[in-house]
Amino acid sequence: MADPIYLDYQATTPLAPEAYAAMKPWLKNGFANPHSSHGAGRKAAAAVEVARGHVAKLLPENGEVIFTSGATEAINLGLRGALPALDQNRRKIVTVATEHAAVRDTCFWLEKQGYDLEVLPVGPDGLVDLHTAREAIDASTAIVAVMLVNNEIGVIQPVQKLADIAHDAGALFLCDAVQGYGRIPIPDNVDMVSLSAHKIHGPKGIGALWRREGVKLEPLLHGGGQEAGVRSGTLSPALCAGFGAAAKLAAERFDADAEHVAKLWNLARELFSDWTINGSVEHRYMGNLNIRRDGLDVARLMSDVRGVSFSAGSACASGSGRPSHVLTALGLTPAEVKSSIRIGFGRYTTTRELREAAKMLDRAAGEILVS
After folding, report:
1. How confident is the model at residue 26, as a pLDDT?
2. 175 is annotated as an active-site residue
3. Choosing from 107, 175, 240, 316, which is the catalytic residue?
């Protein structure tokens, strides 16, 4: 039996062969602790720094990359770690209704610790209104947290403008760039950026927080202080090397990948012409197609179409039984939310795979709707 056609690139991406090759030596013979002072340790440390350089090349220049276990830790370190060093009269945190759970839940936790939380609404297109943002972000704001590319609907927020608004009010700006890093340029006026290797064809279990020079952080984990004194724990040279190789490849293939994704997007628009797109079409990363057909039972669709790996929402929320907070924030009814699917494609997706998957999904959806 053939493997399913993989169309869930927002959940994770296939490991690039180059990333796998970069990891292999450090999984076998290069097992030394990169924080040890002997020769083998220094060699491992050098590999970590090479990887850090590759990751940094896709980010603003005036900052540093701090390796973490993933984007969730990076977001927690950015939000929770930056607050103690800020003016304690600034007690407001501003975020957006469509943020990833890593940001939302951290913000809700901070609210329980006594911070004021303001969650900005979005329009039917999934975009934040800049006038609303200006009214919310004021002199009491400590941090504004907004993702660059939404993980469920692919909408690109006006991060550059929102960061300017935050700075005008004297606040820091954290950008969750997990879905945008390596695919679209990262705005150069943000203060912190969270990243995840496995979303750019790197390994799982490693991510990073980039912080601008001058941004102070209190550690969440106490110990050896290996990463700039703010993130303790022994780094894995293998994971770092894989992340670095994936970032290097993303930089080299930036234009080619974008051209390929645009080609797939145009084809997908044709193949799924009977479906309605959720979120903005213009302000969108084209590797994300979130669509719906009224009356469709998506749970049954996923059961009927075993030959395609796709999503009924973000992988982080699947199985929770809760409707997508992102689609709900767009103003979709519960029935519309339940009739929506997310198709994600990228570097290794072929047009043949997309055509075959669309045929299977369309056929099964039609049978469900008439049954």
Report:
1. 97
2. no
3. 316
